[in-house]
Amino acid sequence: MSRLVVVSNRVADLRKSSQSGGLAVGLADALRERGGVWFGWDGETVATRPTEAKVDEIGNVRMISMPIRQEDYNDYYIGYANSVLWPLFHYRLDLVSFRPAFFEGYMRVNLQFASLLAPHLADDDIVWVHDYHLIPLAQALRNLGCRQRTGFFLHIPFPPLDLLAATPNHRELVEALMQYDVIGFQTSTDVANFRHYLDEWGMAESVDEDTVRVDRRLITIRRYPIGVDADAFREMAEQTPDDVRIDSQRREVLGRKQIIGVDRLDYSKGLPDRFRAFSRLLSLHPELEKKVTFLQVAPPTREDVNAYSDIREELEGLTGSINGRFSDFNWTPLRYIHRPVARETLASLFRASRVGLVTPLRDGMNLVAKEFVAAQDDENPGVLVLSQFAGAAEELREALIVNPYDIDGMAEAINRALYMDLDERKDRQKALRARVSEQNAQTWLESFLRDLERPGKPVLVRDIDASAA
What is the pTM of this model? Predict the structure, then answer.
């Protein structure tokens, strides 16, 4: 079995027994099982460019990490990755802030990643690169003579051709992507957008629905929807902490149902519109006064980017406005938590909620939707209200699918979820749980690695050198 080399913007802490997401959980388990390498940024910034990486052995996994210069952090991470690619790939051209120095820094840091990773690679390794921060990494490795089988998985959406063309470097990005042997996306829409770009720009010859040819190379392009460990999350949800249990009992005595949303504080999540939909719900249905509460957990993220401080201020203003208008001395309709909450607590909160709101304006997959389903009591389940623009909507069709731009439509969907009868809730939950359990984190990981390992023997650097001679 070839050694697996995982490359991501940040390395996970494998000393922790559990991680906080599908990527970390699935990859950490795979690396522990088969041994391998995890390479990435260590989260530190330094004054001078690093000349070597830090190596740490944790069991049979080698963790290799590197700091980056503050200037590179500004241009690569804050600049091109999160002020250009993130808004662009989430269809938010209004928030794209492009500067030539950003792209130069992005390419420069990817070359640094490649230069420090290459000496640690064996000829028969397979390399799995993750997400939009590292699109050019395979190209940088190829230029250094590395010929290992290399795959790329995009965790966020891939935009349509017309939107992608808004960045001056779009062709360079796609040419860099074509240096991978396997390219994975979350949804069929993302695959279609990418294939459409290749067709329009004449960058590849189509072989079949999953394969294109560039020169003499075959490249696999497929949808690999990421999942969660549904069984483990359900077990976690059943272990209710005392504070969650007491809060649930209090709501039960008062006859109140809980709505919950859990999202990073990000403009792609549609949180202001979600808050407005809740306000509209209370306006349209005054009979819900003191009978429903909305809990929104939104831990901070990317606080160095101006757009994130703007949305934080907007949400704080909406929270005060809604509570000021509707609350009573013994009822606060909206509770907004702007800090991280333990995953174990979130699982129990999902189980204790009648409605889960997952209403992003655009999302690659959104594992919160799948975790909400996994956490439910099948005998008395809650109802998932899901945006049509979340990648999960391709799979979770039994959720109440909504348009996150339609405030009144979301309000009525929430109302329907609150009053849905038990038989319908159980029927929907049965179908959703089956799908979440089937398309889980392990299935995602195994299907991608199966395609990445398919050819068996990789093309070795020495073979290429010998044939050229």
Answer: 0.92
